[in-house]
Each structure stands twice: as structure tokens, then as C-alpha cells.
Amino acid sequence: MDDAKEGDRDAVETAPLLFRAAVDALRTARLRPQIEIEPTRAPQRLAPFAYALEAAVVDGEEDLADGRLVLLHDPAGHDAWQGSFRLVTLVRAELEPEMAADPLLPDVCWSWLTGALQTRGLSYGEASGTVTRASSHYFGGMAERPAASQIEIRASWTPREGLGGVPDTASHLASWCDLLAQIAGLPPAAPGDASVVSLPQRRGPQSR
């Protein structure tokens, strides 16, 4: 573990009990096996306490989609969040040309996010974000490379706090992974198609 991750682990261990419980739930969530996940350095200025995960949907040697999920906690509460916890995410994937050309794609991608939360019956509020579609065309010495398109979802929402004041972060992580799988083009997971998160080391997201 590098110094940054060691520092993040120490920060969690000295954080308030509610935040530690929320992080422990993330660490023991059950996810589908095509998703590789590990802790990463959390942003330092968004909230008094933060914990971050990065993940990739992997098919053989290819990363089909990748993203980051950050859990924020402000014990004093936050007016914009309407709560003391906040989840912030970035998800991105390469697109087939036909899909990239669909004018409804941004709306569809946003519905994938909200739908993933609703399918698992999760209570949340104050959802906001952006869906960005980008295309790259290559010229000169790179002209032989085919044009490429990418979709990127940046979003945040407030997970409603459950018993004891702790949100069900494990289920929110599972719904986020459902979004990752959907944007990667995987079929819905079959019942029981999950494995306990061990947070293994993995290679970084593919170059974009």
C-alpha cells in the first residue's frame, strides 16, 4: 500500500463512528465478479471525511468501463446535500459509433443511474450531475486509427440515512456497479452472480 492509501486508511480509523460504519459496509459489499475494485486516494477538500473506490468492468485484458465512487461525510450536515453523507461518482466508457450518434443518449445514461438506485429500492435525494459525450478523430501520423467516442457520467446524490444514522452504502455501491456494468454493455446479473469484495490491486483504467 502506498503512502497516500496508508494515510487514507489511518484517517478512516480515526473518523467518527458513523463514517467508519459506512466505510466498513463498502468494504464488505457483494459485487458481480466482472468488476475489479480497489480503494484509491480520496479528495481532501470536499468534506471533513472522505473515502474513495475506483473500479473497472473487465473482459479478459480489456477494460469495458471504469469509474470512481467517493463517499463524503460532514458530521455537521451540509445544506446542499440535505444530509451528512454524499456519494460522488465518475463513470466512463467507450461507445460504438451507432450508440454515440443517438441524440437521446445523455437522457438514457442518466436514467441508467437513477434506475440502478430505484431497482434496488434505495432512498436518495438531491441527485445532480452531467452526462458528456465526446468524439475523437485522428489525423496525420495517427490517421489510421478509427474515430472513437466516449460517454462520461459525473453525478452526486445523498443516500438517506438508515437505522443508527448510517446509510446503506453497500447497496449504493452495488447499484453503482450495476450502472458500470450497464454502460459497459454487460447483461443483467443473474441471482447470486456476485463475489465478496476483496479490494485487490489492479492495473489502472485504460488510456483514453
Topology, pairings included?
Blueprint lengths: L2 H11 L3 H11 L2 E2 L3 E6 L8 E11 L2 E17 L4 E13 L1 H4 L4 H15 L4 E13 L11 E12 L9 H16 L10 E2 L12
Antiparallel strand pairs: 1-8, 2-3, 3-4, 4-5, 5-7, 6-7
Helix pairs in contact: 4-5
Short description:
Helices cover 27% and strands 37% of the residues. It has helices at residues 3-13, 17-27, 97-100, 105-119, 169-184, and strands spanning 30-31, 35-40, 49-59, 62-78, 83-95, 124-136, 148-159, 195-196.
Order of helices and strands: HHEEEEEHHEEHE
Report the portion of residues in β strands.
Answer: 35-45%
- Mean pLDDT over the full residue set: 82
Question: Helical content, roughly?
Answer: 25-40%
Oligomer: single chain
Number of helices: 5
**Backbone CA Rg:** 18 Å
Q: What structural class should be given to the helix and strand makeup?
A: alpha+beta
Sheet having the most strands: 6 strands, antiparallel
The first-to-last residue Cα distance is 26 Å
The count of β-strands is 8
Shape: elongated
Low-confidence stretches: 191-208
Number of domains: 1
Strand order of the largest sheet: 2-3-4-5-7-6
